[in-house]
Amino acid sequence: MQRSKRHKAIMQAVTGGDAVTIAALVDLTGVSAVTIRRDLAELAAAGAVVRTHGGVRRARQRGVPMPFATRSAADQELKSALAAVAAGLVADEDAVVVDNGTTCLAVAHALAGRSVTALALSLHAAAALAARPGATVVVPGGVVETDTLAFGGASAVDAIRDFRADVAVIGACSASPAQGLTSTTHDDARLKRAVLAGAARRVLVAAPGKLARTSAFRFGDAADLTDLVTSTAAAPDLLDDFRAEGVDVHLVDVEPDEDADPPR
Predict the structure, then answer these.
(1) What is the 3-state secondary structure (H, E, C) of the chain?
(2) Do 169 and 235 reside in the same domain of the chain?
(3) In this structure, are 59 and 87 located in the same domain?
(4) Using one digit for the tens of pLDDT, what is the confidence trace for 119-152?
(5) Number of domains present in the structure of the chain
(6) Across all residues in the chain, what is the average pLDDT?
(7) pLDDT tens for residues 237-251?
(8) The model's pTM
């Protein structure tokens, strides 16, 4: 079982709140106890679980995401396909904002080497863009979040407001046509709101599962987007709702992994 799939299975196993033994996780995943202990150490370091004697339980806090590396490794075929289409919406010499998150990181890789000026909203995206000559890469400054390496805080929002973007490539925790574009944190929603306000073209890159759910903090409406890049696996009625709001919908014919979290 892939590492990202093991992490997902472990998180599902502890959803009920009771401690789960290492032996039970070995049976569940089919890997060795040594591998399970390594997985638990990674999840505990990210704050997603708490180790117990001989096992693990979920962390008490709500809304703890899977570790960035785990999410980045999941659903790579879909992310690469989405990223290729999103990058194709950016012209050479454009000024582009690349949002944080693992799907937008895939877009950063797709844009590497292109003659664009890119404001990267995470150190992960900045490193990917700067890995090859071509792009001028700018970072907003401010607080850097542990694990995701995403920028946040007032100084990051100010930097976004001062950047006149031809294209903004954004992710979302949830993007329901009825409930709007939402994020799990207030700070991330504030950041994305500034991105939407300052870009001429606003491209949401999202796995199909994100179009049917909502999160706590709203940062925009479907009508605030100019483009949506998603998969043909998305529900047709939801895609029609986006089109009704004037959004150009771009589809890739790649199915999400059956047991993978929708990429972010």
Answers:
(1) CCHHHHHHHHHHHCCCCCCEEHHHHHHHHCCCHHHHHHHHHHHHHCCCEEEECCEEEECCCCCCCCCHHHHHHCCHHHHHHHHHHHHHCCCCCCEEEECCCHHHHHHHHHHCCCCCEEEECEHHHHHHHHCCCCCEEECCCCEECCCCCEEECHHHHHHHHCCCEEEEEECCCEEECCCEEEECCHHHHHHHHHHHHCEEEEEEECCHHHHHCCCCEEEECHHHCCEEEEECCCCHHHHHHHHHCCCEEEEECCCCCCCCCCCC
(2) yes
(3) no
(4) 999 999 999 999 999 999 999 998 999 889 999 9
(5) 2
(6) 90
(7) 999 999 999 999 999
(8) 0.77
Angle between helix 123-130 and 102-111 (nearest 10): 20
The domain in which residue 36 lies consists of 3-65
